[in-house]
Amino acid sequence: MITTRPRRFWAVPAIAVASVVLGIATTATMQAAGLFAGTGPFPAGPPSCAAPALPGSVVDVTATDMGPMMGPGMMGPGMMGPGAGGRHGPGGPGGGHPWPGMGMMRLLVNPATAPAGPVSLRVINTGALTHEVVVLPLAAGESPGQRVSGSDGKIDESASLGEAARSCGAGDGDGIVPAATGWTTLTLPAGRYELVCNVAGHYAAGMYAELDVVGQPK
Description:
4-stranded mixed β-sheet; globular; 3 helices
């Protein structure tokens, strides 16, 4: 009598082979997308470029965020619920833009005080999104984070004194990509300055910090 092996015995090895093939294909796709090279949503390893020796007082600015959680779909009013927008929510400085001021993005400044004269900002992007740093003067009695965002999610930067917005370069550009560094050198008189990221929605999400410039010691 000829017996046949039940087909269920062949199912396990078939599934194992299919899983291996699927895993290889997925890995190749992710590598092609740059997810394992620091060019995708999750940057890996040290910064892809470093700033050269910069003149004057060097101030390090770190731009950071919570990565994929910061997309409009995750940050929209539907997920946040009524009243979750903070002071940048509807009716506040954020102008009701879908990126409310939850403090999920940050600009960290070190040191926060520099002597008047040449000041170089060295900006490193340790987040997963593109950022920039724009320097704006602060008026007497004005605090960081009080500027009003327009319908485009940006604040008025017409008073800008300069910016670091170029990956691996100085000055203006298309933004500093994840794991990259940008820089700029400005001559600043004594005063208070607000450093902001003016990519749409980022200011309202908390990307601002104060830099105080003091008179030269006698």
